[in-house]
Every structure is written in C-alpha cells, then in structure tokens.
Write a structure and sequence with these properties.
The chain is mainly alpha-helical and 129 residues long. It has 6 helices and 3 strands; from the N terminus they run αβααββααα.
Length: 129
C-alpha cells in the first residue's frame, strides 16, 4: 500500500500535493524526481536548472558519484519559488513591453510634438498660422 502524501514541508498547489512522496528526504537523480512531478527533463536541462536556474531560482542539489541528486522536497520548493519568480518577472515587465512597442512610442512622441509624425504635425501647424 503506497504511503500517504505529505504537504507539511511546503505550500504546494493541489496538483503537486498528491504526487509528493511521503519520504521527501531520499536523494534521487534530478530527472527521476522531476518525472514524479510530471516534468520530462533531459540530462543537460537538469544540469542547467542546477547550475543556472530558471527565473533566478536554482534547484538545490548535491553531487553523489558524479550525478546530481535532489529530493522531492527540494524540487517542490523549486517549483513554488520558480512560479513566484516568474509572476514577479511578468508583473515587472508589463510597462517595459509598452515602451518597446514602436506604435505606442510613436504616439507618445507625437503627443509631445516629437518624433517622425509629431514633427510633421508641428510643421503643418506652423504653416497654418
């Protein structure tokens, strides 16, 4: 009979609560732990998550016999933190996206009499006077 899942270690979304093993402290290969959470990782991708991370969050691991190992608890922490960091990044990037939009930038410049269309409008207004 499988052990009951535990959620005492992290506030996980319900989809991950049923998957987490009752013994989260047993180190296993990163790809195996990721598979239990529904992630299909290539070995190189697992190394990238360990060394560089995603959205500024690194997956905590240990190296055992040349293999990167992690626990279900650490991977669950990584998922929660990565999702929170992605939301922060997306919220911070909102106004920047508007500034990078060429059409929006042209409208702002034109309203101040600057830029390509703003300069033409200013010249045409001067000619009317």
């Amino acid at each position: 009979m499988p052990a009951k899942p535990t959620t005492a270690f992290s506030p996980l979304p319900p989809i991950y609560q049923a998957i987490v093993d009752a013994s989260p402290e047993c180190p296993e290969p990163v790809t195996k732990v990721a598979g239990r959470f529904g992630w299909k990782l290539h070995d190189k991708s697992a190394i990238r998550l360990c060394n560089h991370g995603s959205h500024g969050v690194r997956l905590p691991t240990i190296k055992v016999g040349g293999r990167r190992m992690t626990t279900a608890r650490a991977f669950a922490w990584f998922l929660v933190e990565r999702e929170a960091a992605a939301k922060r990044t997306k919220a911070a990037a909102g106004p920047v996206d508007l500034l990078l939009d060429a059409g929006a930038a042209d409208k702002v410049l034109a309203s101040r009499g600057l830029g390509r269309t703003g300069a033409r409008l200013a010249r045409s207004r001067e000619g009317e006077s």
